[in-house]
Amino acid sequence: MAYVDGFVLPLHPDKHDAYKAMAESFAREAAKLGGVSIETLGDGLEPGKLTSFPKSVHAEEGENVVFSFIIWPDKATRDGAWEKIMGMPELMPEGDPPFDGKRMFWGGFNPLVGEEALATLLASARQPVSTEG
User: Concatenated DSSP letters for 59-123?
Assistant: First the structure.
């Protein structure tokens, strides 16, 4: 059964390039360990009265919200991958990270609907991309 890790964090426009470089490095390593990493940047997020993506991370003036997730084939693969990833100093940012980790939140999720679509996505992500036209 597939497993999904989700992350939400604030990101200032001045930090986009640094965050993207960090996320790309992480995505390459996650792929080697069986995961597919997706990083998205908020577009048209409403501030909300009680709850919203910006409120969830206490977004400050000018900040946007990153919503990212990693799809794993199963929880055992995810657990093993995270153990390896946490031991990779090259994936840890040098100096201050490009976002405020105190305002980030994350969690693991079992699919409720769409597990076949997740399996298809995982399978297609592992297929070599043809460069022939």
Answer: PPTT-EEEEEEEEESSHHHHHHHHHHHHT-GGGSPSSS-SS-GGG-EEEEE--SS-HHHHHHHHH
CA atoms of 77 and 103, how far apart (whole Å): 27
Sign, CA torsion 12/17/21/23: positive
Number of helices (H), then strands (E), belonging to the chain: the values are: 4, 4
pLDDT tens, residue by residue, 55-98: 999 999 999 999 999 999 999 999 999 999 999 888 877 788 99
CA-based angle 49:51:52, to the nearest 5? 100
Residue pair 47/54 in contact by the 8 Å Cβ criterion? yes
Q: In what order do the strands lie in the sheet with 105-109?
A: 36-41, 64-72, 3-11, 105-109
Q: Are 102 and 88 in contact (CB under 8 A)?
A: no
**66 φ, ψ to 5°?**
-100, 130
Q: Could you identify the residue written with the tokens 């995270």? A: 82
